[in-house]
Amino acid sequence: MSAPEQSGGRVQKRVAVGLAMQVSGKEMDGMPFDDTVYSGNVSRTGASFLTHRRLEVGMEVDVLIPRRPGDPVDADFASRAQVVRAQPGTDEREILVGVQFLDRRFHRVYVSESTS
Fold it and tell me: Domains in the chain: how many in total?
C-alpha cells in the first residue's frame, strides 16, 4: 500500500518498491562511499532506503536509479538528494534514510510490491 508524502503543500504518492539505487557521497567523518542499496519506497520527489553508512539530516548524496529492462523510460535517473530523515533501522547497525531529490522529479511508474 502506498502512503502520501507532503512536499511543498502537495501530496506525493509513495510506492513500496525495491529498486536498486547507487548512492554515493561522504559519511559524517568525510569518508567517501559508493554503495548499491534497495529502496523501501519511492515517490516523484524522493526515496527511502536502509544503509550502514553514517548519514544525518541535511547531508547531500548523489542517487542513481538504473533503468530496468522493460521500463518505458530510456535512461537512468540521476539526482543530487538531501537527507531529510535518518532513524534507526531494523538492526542496530542500519539507518533508515529518507532523501528528497533536488535536481529533478522521478517520473517512472511502479506498482507497489507491498501486500498490505
Answer: 1
Cβ(64)–Cβ(95) below 8 Å: no
94, amino acid identity? E
C-alpha cell of residue 3: 502512503
Establish if 21 belongs to a structural domain.
yes
Give dist(CA 90, CA 112) in Å, integer: 21
Domain span holding position 17:
3-101
**End-to-end C-alpha distance for the chain, whole angstroms:** 5
The CA-atom distances, in angstroms, between 59 and each of 11, 13, 100 are: 24, 24, 11
86 in a domain, yes or no? yes
For residue 26, the domain's CATH number is 2.40.10.220
Give 12 or 109, the one with higher predicted confidence: 12
**Structure confidence by residue, pLDDT tens digits, 47-104:** 999 999 999 999 999 999 998 777 766 678 899 999 999 999 888 889 999 999 998 7
